[in-house]
Write a structure and sequence with these properties.
nine-stranded mixed sheet, 506 residues, Adenylate/guanylate cyclase domain-containing response regulator, six-stranded antiparallel beta barrel, Thrombin, subunit H, 39% helix, 31% strand, Alpha-Beta Plaits, A/G_cyclase, Nucleotide_cyclase
Length: 506
């Protein structure tokens, strides 16, 4: 029988769907509760069985509560759960249709570990399963240590405890060594007070790395293949992070959030972040070789680097904590990352002003994203010299070819992740597998901006579609021409490109 997951909500259909998705993994068993009364009955029944048979009954491994129901009942169910001693430490997730900063803040104030969208995505189900597993492992390990501590009476037992301590540290190194470099991990072991709840405000360099278009790519893959390719991607990125003293805070679906300068402060934190980002981009070549061998679509990654003050430390409860970073610098780094395209490393100008090592940049732009109080100048980094001496290798398939036939680009701007009904037209002049140069229609009046995403439908002079539903980001606007960087292409585009270049080679 799999781990018990309680799902609490008052919409029966949503509960059935949530139960189906959770149970589909085979490693979990969802138990739905449709009211506070149902939760109370379950807890009372467990207590009665324990009292009558002296048999200890397992608490759920994780609890998911519907935010809409909780808000309507003034969080009565959540309050009741938090008062139950035998549920202390059980991870609490909230699920909601739409998320806002205020909603997330409210959920976390009620003890939430994670806030998920509903219905659950594949990544959401993976998050539930991983957290439930981690909770059970921690709980079982704590029980084992308590039992052993009660029998440590003689020197022989003390020796055994020391051996177990070594084994525990070895296990911790195996698990957490994936997140911290060796010197950071040793610092944590030598100063266990760092494991207490709390933290401090300090200046950090934040990195966000994200696979471009992975959501649409993953729709054509089975859950096992999605997990396989993501695991290989993360495994390929971590060596560069740990080599340059980076600390992984969290995997966010197909993204990595990491910081430099914590838990150990560093005068070269930004240089380390830049060097790590360059090596991560170069390691994508290995990832795509793996994708080719296994028949997966090729992938690209965008990276953003920003620096500023943030809270860094352990947050949560004594039963379940997370090493986390909180602050506007994290939100701004996420906004910068949204402007990046595959193969890019973008860093804020303020960030680069703090470093000593020579850095080569190929371009810079000023961005004003939602949530930012003021524009931020960002630079595209190509290399860092000095003792780091590394650069981004030249990308393949990026030679622009002339187009000698009429190709109309119908472009639909994307604002706030919503595709607009307005069609902006232009003529394709040059393109590669990664970029396109488009001559704009002089009559167009729509306010196109650098960093804006567009959906593209292309047609020939006879009006027939050449390729459809590909996505790109505007990276340059100059003298009536747009330069687009493709963020997602499909078979129809590759077929069109192959025909054009095959004809030119003849």
């Amino acid at each position: 029988m799999g781990r018990n997951i309680w799902v609490i909500g008052n919409d029966r259909q949503e509960m059935i769907e949530a139960q189906r998705r959770i149970n589909s993994t085979g490693g979990m068993r969802a138990v739905c509760k449709l009211s506070l009364e149902a939760v109370q009955r379950s807890i009372e029944e467990r207590q009665l069985v324990e009292k009558a048979s002296q048999e200890w009954r397992e608490a759920p491994s994780l609890i998911v509560v519907d935010y809409g129901m909780s808000q309507k009942e003034d969080f009565a169910t959540v309050s009741y759960i938090k008062k139950q001693k035998d549920l202390a430490g059980v991870p609490l997730f909230f699920m909601t249709e739409a998320r806002t900063k205020q909603l997330d803040r409210e959920c976390y104030s009620w003890g939430a570990t994670v806030v998920l969208h509903k219905p659950f995505s594949r990544e959401g189900i993976m998050r539930i399963e991983q957290t439930a597993w981690q909770h059970d492992v921690t709980k079982n390990y704590e029980k084992l240590l308590v039992q052993q501590a009660n029998h440590l009476r003689e020197q022989e037992e003390i020796v055994k405890l020391n051996r177990q301590l070594e084994a525990r540290n070895s296990l911790l190194r195996q698990v957490f060594g994936q997140y911290f470099s060796d010197d950071i991990f040793n610092e944590i072991l030598e100063h266990p007070e760092g494991a207490a709840i709390g933290g401090k405000k300090r200046e950090l360099t934040v990195m966000m790395a994200d696979l471009r278009g992975f959501t649409s790519i993953s729709e054509g893959l089975s859950p096992e293949k999605v997990t396989d390719v993501l695991n290989y991607f993360f495994q390929s990125m971590l060596p560069a992070l740990t080599e340059h003293k980076g600390t992984v805070i969290e995997y966010l679906g197909d993204s990595i959030l990491a910081v430099f300068g914590a838990p150990i402060a560093s005068e070269h934190q930004t240089e380390n972040a830049i060097a790590a980002a360059i090596k991560m981009q170069n390691n994508m070549e290995r990832v795509n070789e793996y994708c080719t061998r296994n028949g997966y679509p090729l992938m690209e990654m965008g990276i953003a680097i920003h620096r500023g003050e943030a809270f860094i430390g352990n947050v949560g409860s004594e039963q379940l904590m997370r090493y986390n970073v909180i602050g506007s610098v994290v939100n701004e780094c996420s906004r910068i990352e949204s402007f990046s395209v595959g193969g890019q490393v973008l860093a804020s100008r303020d960030c680069l002003s703090r470093i000593n090592a020579p850095v080569e940049i190929s371009s810079q732009q000023e961005i004003q994203a939602k949530g930012m109080q003021y524009p931020i100048t960002v630079c595209e980094i190509r290399s860092i010299r000095g003792s780091y001496n590394c650069r981004i290798r030249e990308q393949r398939n990026d030679v622009l070819h002339l187009v000698d036939r009429w190709v109309l680009f119908n472009m639909y701007p994307i604002e706030g992740k919503l595709i607009q009904d307005i069609c902006v037209t232009g003529r394709l002049c040059r393109f590669s597998y990664k970029r396109a140069v488009v001559q704009m229609d002089e009559k167009e009046e729509y306010d196109l901006r650098i960093g804006m995403d567009v959906e593209i439908f292309a047609a020939g002079d006879d009006g027939r579609a050449l390729f459809t539903e590909i996505y790109a980001k505007i990276i340059e606007i100059k003298d009536g021409f747009l330069t687009l960087r493709f963020t997602h292409v499909n078979r129809s585009f590759r077929s069109f490109a192959g025909q054009i270049w095959e004809k030119q080679e003849e």
